[in-house]
């Protein structure tokens, strides 16, 4: 089965790349008696979008939160830019599944919040926040409150907030799962543009195979109970085509099928 | 209250008669939709009307009509006895409420933030909240006599537990995702508490404060009726003893009105200062 769009590294241990911005070393996580993650070794390349994909209960969000420093691993270490980290840091920014916007603050203050916490002067953080609000397509909504926005717009606020702190690595925890299907597609297209423009490293968690194949440079498939890496797939999708053509492309559909075959054994 | 309803209705009547296509019924409906205060005024008007009717039947020789009560109220304001009573009543009330709010929110937030504080304090306040405090008021008199201290303590005893327990629950129910968000952007513990936890807890915090203040009013009335008659408690006791029922009801109704207005004022402060997004519906 020779598929030109599919280069699969068979590895539980992927080839070490010189330009890994985030390294995950032997991460295990237990919640009491429950083993959530076992022996995770991964490297995330600078400027790439890597997706953690798997059925629910495979620990993909847990792994993302361990990388973010929000949840401590039971053993193993996380190395960011060559340094072992034990908590959240300025080189990583998180986008939350439920948006995590402050309902009492305007869009502007929400987007600037990361900078506010760092103690940046009001005028400067407002200027930066306005730029990113415009970039995610929310110009004109600066003084609105989150409850006045749709789900999709709220997540744009969450993404703008993560961009505003200028972190090297963006961690996105199922960012589009609370967004309706139409907006989700538009979002995926916008995300690809942002990856292109911002030259940042993205680590993306999703349970949607199509979404993973569409946006990712590399897909890490996790198997559940305990969470382990089962497969690493690089879907070589030609992104110069229009979004609609990509979604009809045979290579794209083959990768989706390939992943589905790998995951169907876990479907209940 | 009655004063404000009549000109409004009058305006409506005039407007309706000028413009032919809009019937009187429609005009009233439009007016009612536009202003929520219309319903509040209407609700009070029905209550006062029922009171007036009940007083005129009369349901009891000791039950005055609404209009008699209003007249008695005017009389007591005019002769200064109402003002004098409020000066006395408000002292332990304001003092007790301020102490309860400050101490209660501080303790409740501490209990919400720290498990040790929770284990140490929660049982005490759960017992205190369950206890019928009126039974303890005589004990306070026994220890602290009949002065301001005893009355202030009575207010605190009623207001504090409910404020503490609500503040504690408020902090416990803060959205954990917001706290994670603050941590992920390297917010320190103080920023976490003051920029995330307290604002997110503020609706429940204020609900507790409202309940606490209402309990404080109960406390001060208990103190003034049980410890020694002063202030409004004295007005109620005195006018009852001389069978001035309209005056007695005026004193009772006035303290209810003050309590209601205080709570409404607190709600106004909350929505306008702390949670601006609640103003926009």
Automatic annotation (TrEMBL), chain A:
Instruction: List each copy of the ABC transporter domain by range.
Output: 22-249
Lineage top rank: taxon: Bacteria
SUPFAM superfamilies assigned to the protein according to its UniProt record, in alphabetical order:
P-loop containing nucleoside triphosphate hydrolases
Gene Ontology MF: a single term: ATP binding
Which keywords label this protein? ATP-binding, Nucleotide-binding, Transport
Entry similarity comment: Belongs to the ABC transporter superfamily.
Q: Know the name of this protein?
A: ABC transporter
Question: What organism is recorded for this protein?
Answer: Pseudorhizobium pelagicum
Q: What does the record give as the organism's lineage?
A: Bacteria, Pseudomonadati, Pseudomonadota, Alphaproteobacteria, Hyphomicrobiales
